Amino acid sequence: MDLLSRRARTIAPYTAGEQPSDRRYVKLNTNENPYPPSPRAMAAYLDYDLDSLKLYPPLEMRALREAIAAAEGVSPENVFCGNGSDEVLALCFPAFFDEDGAGAAFADVTYSFYPVFCGFFGIPHTVVPLEEDFTQDLSKLTAAKAQGLLVANPNAPTGIGIPLAQIEPFVAANAGRVVILDEAYMPFFGQSAVPLTKMYENLLVVKTFSKGYSLAGIRCGYAVGSRGLIEGLERCRDSFNSYPVDRVCQAVCAAAVSDAAYYAETTARVVAERARLARALEELGFAVLPSCANFLFARHAERGGKEIYAGLRERGVLVRHFDKPRISAYNRITVGTAAENDALLSALRGLLGR
């Protein structure tokens, strides 16, 4: 007897990067930060009053929202927090899109959770192809008939960033509909659109503690936007789960966001390794897209993407391969530590006979 709903039977879920446990791998497939969380974040975790865990988390998450607001230069009333940026993005769909409306529009090669969210919430969507070089022509996205627009900046899985000078006119041109900027990888680019949220009521910027803050395991994300947009997210969240961010997570993330100096240092190390790794890959015959994220998107001149992925996996190195149109020749490679990147390059030399 099939007791599942039609939606549960037909939905195509998001596929996360693999997490195998059969052996120890050099893990460069899920874009985790290779450096530990800040000392302040670690201290907040280790010193937390565990007796308080018998109580529900603070409903308004005031301390966390105040810490984020201070770091971003906005008011706490303009900050929304959730259980990872994926949850924040998911709540955007019922908050800003109607099932019988014009729906959402986003690129064909971008974060693959967007169409999954549309399918889950029954939101129609329009796909706007990236250019041949994988850059995004924002005027073509503006031309789409949609209730709102989503842009990952820097984009995933390509890593290409859109300068802030191009973002502002794009937001202004779409004043009558919501513009959602997914800035998960913005720490490695440094051109956040958060300041624009004070000028444009239609702009929502979504961020995460997973990448730049080295806290992928604790699950926290946030959005910054006008009070009207934040209220929409709050209404949807409180119809689902009023306590999405636990007490420990709130304390750790509030401490992390206050330690800008530490994260500036670790981000600089990732960016430096990104440049070194890109050069080394090019010397091995790879074409590497210009990345503003903590990963590289690369294809080899002679070997297919799936072959490169499988060969590296056999040698104990995990990268991400997407068997999809336009990008099946590529692999997404997380920028690790210098030692991890050297292990990748060594495995590639063995695979390529170099």
UniProtKB/TrEMBL annotation:
The keyword Nucleus does not apply. InterPro entries: Aminotrans_II_pyridoxalP_BS, Aminotransferase_I/II_large, HisP_aminotrans, HistidinolP_aminotransfase, PyrdxlP-dep_Trfase, PyrdxlP-dep_Trfase_major, PyrdxlP-dep_Trfase_small. The keyword ATP-binding does not apply. It comes from the Bacteria. Gene3D superfamilies: Aspartate Aminotransferase, domain 1, Type I PLP-dependent aspartate aminotransferase-like (Major domain). It holds the Pfam family Aminotran_1_2. Pathway: Amino-acid biosynthesis; L-histidine biosynthesis; L-histidine from 5-phospho-alpha-D-ribose 1-diphosphate: step 7/9. The modification N6-(pyridoxal phosphate)lysine is found at K211. Its cofactor is pyridoxal 5'-phosphate. Residues 25-348 form the Aminotransferase class I/classII large domain. Its EC number is 2.6.1.9. Keywords: Amino-acid biosynthesis, Aminotransferase, Histidine biosynthesis, Pyridoxal phosphate, Transferase. GO terms for biological process: L-histidine biosynthetic process. Homodimer. This is Histidinol-phosphate aminotransferase. It comes from Candidatus Borkfalkia faecigallinarum. The gene is hisC.
